[in-house]
Amino acid sequence: MFLAPPFNGAVEFSPSFSPRPQISHIVFDFDGTLSWLRHGWPQIMCTLFEENFPAKRGESEATIRELLLNEIYELNGKQSIFQMERFAQLVRERRGTPPHPEDLLLEYQRRLDKVIYERSEQITRGEAKSYKYVVHGALALLDKFQQRGLKLIILSGTIEHRVKQEAELLELARYFTPHIYGSKADPAQFSKRMVLNRVLKEEGISGHHLLSIGDGPVEIVQTKELGGVAVGVATDEEQNGSGKMEPHKRHQLLKAGADILIPDFRDTEALLQSLFENR
After folding, report:
1. Beta strand segments in 123-251, E
2. Who contacts 198 (Cβ-Cβ below 8 Å, separation ≥6)?
3. Domain boundaries, given as residue ranges, for the chain
């Protein structure tokens, strides 16, 4: 039976979890897992959806918002077009006429890009340190992984050139280059599973050597299917380092089968001990 070391912050373990000292490759999601540049994106997307959503008689704004947020988080980790298509489906189910998913995506991206630009400019102008927009405790964890000689990989649903630019801006690229992978313009040419399969083949490893760390259910489900270990990070979208698990993320990550669930990386040593035990 696995006995967890003491964590100072919140943590949840799957009953079936056991340490995996043979882990050699670690795949990180980017937005919400390492980068906090896009924090608040679910609220931005939800607000856009609310503006175009046909309410039923007597349905409260709070009820609609909760419905939409659940749908948004369900697809967290996939390219945003999938959330736009799902929203259009929901509108049609209510006998409404939705905006075209591509038009919705463009408007969402415009609103989000405005926020990202403002935050990036703070760093570029020296008004904010880059680590302000790195998830709490991530740098210390990356240092520890690197010291152990583990291969680190970024796998994001965000367009690849944006991931690489933002990884450089946040001084994270040095941990991962050249293994930074993002989505392509054509959704049919990219899925996280495709990249995971390629990594396993190119590196000559099995899924049992794989650890995924992410704030969305996609990478959790796919890593578990491959026989790997998955750490879910239910990062707060409002306050970096609050130590609180975002409730929608927590629900989706547990549902996806996360082996360990944490709010951020404040408990680096306890997490390492849990994953590798005496290694």
Report:
1. 151-159, 180-183, 210-214, 229-233
2. none
3. 12-36+133-276, 41-124
Contacts of 117 (CB under 8 A, 6+ apart): none
State the DSSP string of 112-141.
HHHHHHHHHHHHHTTSS-GGGGB-TTHHHH
- Which DSSP letter does residue 216 get? S
Residue located via tokens 């290694």: 279
Q: What is the helix (H) or strand (E) element at residue 160, kind and residue range?
A: helix 160-169
Question: What distance in Å separates the CA atoms of residue 253 and residue 22, rounded to the nearest whole number?
Answer: 24
Give, in order, the Cα–Cα distances in Å from 76 to each of 18, 23, 70, 84, 173. Answer: 26, 25, 10, 12, 23
Is pTM beyond 0.90 here? Answer: yes
Q: Assign a CATH topology to domain 12-36+133-276.
A: Rossmann fold (3.40.50)
Q: Could you tell me the mean pLDDT of each successive run of 10 residues in the chain, 279 residues long?
A: 87 95 97 97 98 95 97 93 97 96 97 97 97 97 97 94 97 96 82 91 95 95 96 97 97 97 97 85
Angstrom CA distances, 232 to 99, 118, 218, stand at: 33, 28, 11
Give the type of residue at 24: S
Residues 6 or more apart whose CB falls under 8 angstroms from that of 174 comprise none
Q: Which two tokens stand for residue 186?
A: 């054509």
Q: Among candidates 215, 217, 241, 212, which has minimal Cα distance to 228?
A: 212
Closest by CA to 158, choosing from 26, 5, 35, is: 35
**Amino acid code (one letter) for 151:** K
d(CA 167, CA 52): 34
